Amino acid sequence: MRIKDIERRSFYLRLIYALCLCGATWTHLQVALVHGLSWDYGGAAPMTRIYWTSLLFIDPLTALLLLLIPGAGLILCVAVIVTDVVHNSWFALHHPIRMDLYLSQIVFLLFVAFTVRTAWRGAASRSAALRAFD
Q1: pLDDT digits (tens, 9 = 90+) for 55-102
Q2: Where are the domains of the chain?
Q3: Could you tell me how far CA 17 lies from the centroid of its own chain?
Q4: Which among 117, 96, 131, 118 is positioned nearest to 9, based on CA atoms?
Q5: Which residues of 63-81 are buried (b: 16+ CB within 10 A; e: fewer)?
Q6: Which residue, 43, 48, 58, 124, is the most exposed by fewest CB within 10 angstroms?
Q7: Are 13 and 126 in contact (CB under 8 A)?
């Protein structure tokens, strides 16, 4: 496969990741607009409240990095979706959750897990090509 094809696939995957993170940002923004940044999420533990509120800022930052600094964006994207699914799985053991949102996170995690290698390869080859011009 040509390097340009790998870079193009990487870009499209990163764009899909970024759009999904923008959707998640919208969800967190709606919560913040309705309840404020200091909402306790119906009595959730302090670390859960901090984590969920922080995603309002981390998700769009990750989306931006995916497009501007792909390597950092991919690392952060994987970290965000893994911690989100792990945290929400733990939370779901003790509290009712919105199953549609939870399942969408699992689907996104699986999509990232199965495609991140391609996204990484294309981002890495793009970085190498840019360094050649320095």
Answers
A1: 999 999 999 999 999 999 999 999 999 999 999 999 999 898 899 999
A2: 3-132
A3: 7
A4: 118
A5: bebbeeebeebbebbbebb
A6: 43
A7: no
